[in-house]
Structure formats: structure tokens, C-alpha cells
Amino acid sequence: MDSFIVITLIKAFVVFAVLMTTLAYLQWVERKVIAHIQVRPGPYRVGPHGLLQPLADVIKLLTKEDLLPSYVNKPLYLAAPFLAITMALLSISVIPFGPVIQVFGYQTMMQLTDLNIGVLFILAASSMGVYGIALAGWSSNNKYALLGGLRSSAQMISYELPMSLAIAAPLLISNTLSLRKLVESQSGSILSWNILHGPFPQIVSFLIFIIAAFAETNRVPFDLPEAENELVAGFHTEYSSMKFASFFMAEYANMITVSCMAVLLFLGGWVAPWPAAYGSSYVPAVIFAAAGLVALYHGANAARQRDKHTLPVFGVIFLMIAGVFLLPIVQLWLIPLFWFCAKTGFILFAFMWVRGTLPRFRYDQLMGFTWKFLFPAAMLNLLVTGFLVAWFS
Amino acid sequence: MISPDVILFVAFALIAVVSAINVVVQTHPISSALSLVGVMGSLAILYLLLGAEFIAAAQVIVYAGAVMVLFVFVIMLLNAGTEVRTGRSFMVQLLGVPLLVALLGLVAYFVQRIYSPRETVHFGGFTGGSAQDIGHALFTTYLLPFEVTSVLILIAILGAVVLARKEMD
């Protein structure tokens, strides 16, 4: 019992630390990706390649004046950012990152807690997160904030429907609500992932889920609540300093959660694309070794004087990481973690890719799209899946 | 030794009752709506304590998440202000509290008569609350009431659409 509490505390600390670092650096990655899409270098001044930019941003946000406008509804104005960030961080506690592992003789799951209603828990937390944005908009007593809050709550209620229906279809195939069992039901290879598996491949449902996820997290092309050319900054116009940072972090935390959900529901979680018997456990080692060799080659034929010293260091570091992936002791948990992070990272990259590519929808297009197309499509997909699952079982 | 279940039950039952009173006492519609969210949330925790995790999740998603967000949305859209409190009439001042006590007494009496306590409630003693059990019960034992309820809701939606269309013309 005592060791259970200690292990849970350690896991909670590790997950929180990793999540917070990821949140800070996701912003840097996003700025870099969008910069390269638009053919500019992106953040470059603070640290090498702007790597210390997140740190500088945190210091900037912490030291800015925390304004409290005189005309706001004080209790709700203060509660709204707190609510948004709490609900956003809550969902990560049920996300499984890997299988059950042995650490120093203790058996533990790579997950904070495994609820048998895990999927519903995430839906509940995300539906409560709407309050943070709606109340922020209302309590600011500002017309732009109010319009942003209204748009956001209408949008999130509307897109929750197709999203829930899209989630229900793979659940019918996997026949469970626990996220861990969901992944275990997809074990094997890429053909047993829910996106390709079963009586009815869930490609349509995956696309509907991703589209709804963009709207739920208020991202481009559905970022109407913070459309800066119409609404200044939308629901967080009146917020500054750490309160603004809370909304910012909540948006990125929600992005991570929906990416994890997409991976767990459709892309087989931590399951490798092909079985370990055919060498899938060597993929991470090969990728890192290749990266290390490329860095060493460019270090040897350096174009700039500085690269002669930096690139070989990176090359050796990458080769060492590749070596770590070959150690049998850590392979058991590191390789599932690698696949999980790779898939989640790809979906997060897609979020940024879309932001760099697509323009914003008009508000009536946004509503018409979900009610007239996405919702019926998700309904039809669920019906077909249900009939086929009943037929084949 | 009081078990943690009892402490949690008392805490969230208290929060539910206080929030429910707050719904009536608050003068601003948004505060009332948020108090109602508090009631829904603490009810969900009470369901969870009894072992009905699926109903708890449904309570949060449907009532606290969807229904109350719509309430808050409408209040925000109409921008309803603080309600003005009118003076109470003489009859209310005289008979209000005695009638309330009488009503509560009657309700308590009938609950006691109809559902006489055969055994005390044990926290965690109820195990039929998983999604599978609820689904099984809904589609076998309670199939007819379940379907009739869905038809009822459909009628309500159609009624709302008809009324809204009449307004528009």
C-alpha cells in the first residue's frame, strides 16, 4: 500500500514535469514549424536556434503586470483561467503512455490511473473546460470578450456531438471504455489498429474526430473565438500576465490531450506498426543512428567553422541514444513510449501544418459545416459500424 | 473511526444542498446557473461513491457539461441583468415557512412508507454501475421505457422547432 502511494506520487511528478516542459516547448516547435512553412527562420535570438525562447517567454509572462480591470465581475474573472487550466491538465491523468512494466521489482502501469470509464472521463473534463472560456468572456464585461466567449461555447457544444459520435464507433469495435484495454484490443500490427481494423475500418471516423478536435481546441481553421481581425483577442482580451498564460497553456494542453486520444482510439496507442518479430523494435535505434551518422558526416565536411565542433557532439549524442534503445532492460518500456510519442508528435505536427496552411472559416460556414455535414456523416458512420459489428460478432 | 467514504458523502451532500439553496438565493442568473452546475457536479460525486461510475460520467457530460453550458450560453446571449427583488406579500410571510415544513414532512413520511429501509446503504457495495451493466439493463429490462423516453424527447424537440418557426414568421 505504501509503495503504491510512493510510486503514484513519483509517476504524478514525472508526468507533470514532462507535460509542463512539453507545453513550453510545443510553442517553440510551433513557431519554428510555421516559420519554416513561411520560409523564415523563426525564433533565433535567445539561445542556439532560439531554444531558450520558452524560458524567456515564461519570465516575461511572470514579470508582467497582473492587471485587474475595475469593471469585471471579480470572482468569475479570477476563477475562469483557473477552471480552464485545471480541466485541461486533468485529462492527462487517464492517458496510458505504455504497457504494464517492472521497475525495481515493482509492477506498475505507464499511466497515472486506469479508469474503466477513461474515455468518458476525458469527454467530461473537456466539456467542463468550456466554462473557463465562456465565463472568461462574460465576466470581462467587454464586447469583444463576450463575443469570443459566445462563439467559443457555441462552437464547442456543436462540435462535441460529431466528436462523441466519432469516438463511439471505434469503441464499438474495441468493446471497452478503458483507454488501456482499448489499446490492448488493437495490439498486433498496423492492420489491427482501429483505423484499418475490423468489420469496418474507421478512417471516416478518424477524420471526423480530427476535424472536431481542431474545433474543440479553438485552433485554425476554427479559431473564431480569438479571430484577431474581428475580436481583438477574443475571450482573453482583458487578461494579462499569468492569467493569460493559463489560457494559453490550457489550449496547448487540450491539443496534447486530443492528439493522445486520436492515437489511443484510432492509431493503436503504443503498438508498433508491425510486430517485434519482424524487427520493429530496431526502428528507433536505426532512426537515431542514421541521424547521428548524418550529423557526423556534415561535421567532417563542415561548411562553417563552428559546425566542425558542434555537429560531431550532436552526432555522438544521437549514436548514444540509439545505443540506449538497444539495451534489453530499457527496451521494454522505451520502445512503446517511442511509438506513442512518435504518433502523438505526428498529429501535433499536423495541427501546426494546418495552422500554417489553411485560412479561417466564416462563422456561419463553421456552424453549417458541423450541423449539416459532420454530424450526419458521424451518425451514418456509427450506424454502419454498429450494424457490421453486430453482424460479424 | 469514520471511513473516508462517509466523510466524502457528507462533504458533497453538503455542497449539493448549499449550492441548491444558492440557486434560489442568488440574484444574478449567471451565479444561479453556476450554483446549479455545483449541484450537478456534487451529485456526480455521490453517484461515484455509490459505485455507479457510468451514471456519474453521464451526469457530468450531459447535465453539467451540455445542458448547463446551454443555460449559461443563453443567459450570456440575452445579457440578463440582476433581478429586482420585490417585497414579499403578507400571506407569504405568514404561511411560507410552516407550509414548507409541512411539505418536507409529507415527502419524508411517504418516502419512509413506500421505501422502508430494508438494509442500510454500504458504499462500494453496489457493483451494477458499469457501462456494460447499464447498457444491458437499458436494452433488456427497461427497453420499452427507454424507447418511449426517446420518442418523448423527439416530440419535445419537434415542438421546440415548431414554436421557434412560428416566432420567425
List its salient traits:
heterodimer; A: about 400 residues; mainly alpha; two-stranded antiparallel ribbon; 13 helices; about 5% strand; B: about 170 residues; Four Helix Bundle (Hemerythrin (Met), subunit A); 2 domains; about 0% strand; globular
Overview of this structure, please?
The complex is a heterodimer of chains A (393) and B (169). With 393 residues, chain A is mostly helical. In chain A, 68% of the residues lie in helices and 3% in strands. Chain A has 13 helices and 2 strands. A two-stranded antiparallel ribbon of chain A has the order 1-2. The mean pLDDT of chain A is 83. With 169 residues, chain B is an all-alpha fold. Chain B folds into 2 domains: 1-85, Up-down Bundle (Four Helix Bundle (Hemerythrin (Met), subunit A)); 128-169. Chain B has helices spanning 4-25, 29-49, 53-78, 90-114, 131-139, 143-168. The longest helix of chain B has 26 residues, at 53-78. The radius of gyration of chain B is 20 Å and the shape is globular. The A-B interface holds A 73, 76, 115-117, 120-121, 123-124, 127-128, 130-131, 134-135, 137-138, 146, 149-150, 153-154, 156-157, 160, 177 and B 30, 34, 37, 53-54, 57-58, 60-61, 64-66, 69-70, 72-73, 76-77, 79, 130-131.
How does CATH name the architecture of the largest domain in chain B? Answer: Up-down Bundle
Instruction: Give the helix tally of chain A.
Output: 13
Strand content of chain A: under 5%
**Number of separate structural domains of chain A:** 2
Radius of gyration of chain B in whole Å, from Cα? 20 Å
**Rough outline of chain B:** globular
Helix content of chain A: 55-70%
C-alpha termini separation of chain A: 41 Å
Task: Report on the biggest sheet of chain B.
Answer: none
Which parts of chain B are unreliable, with pLDDT below 50 for 5 consecutive residues or more?
Answer: none
CATH topology of the largest domain in chain B: Four Helix Bundle (Hemerythrin (Met), subunit A)
Q: What is the strand tally of chain A? A: 2
What's the name of the CATH homologous superfamily of the largest domain in chain B?
NADH-ubiquinone/plastoquinone oxidoreductase chain 6, subunit NuoJ
Helix and strand content put the structural class of chain B at mainly alpha
Number of domains of chain B: 2
**Oligomeric category:** heterodimer
Report the uncertain regions of chain A: none
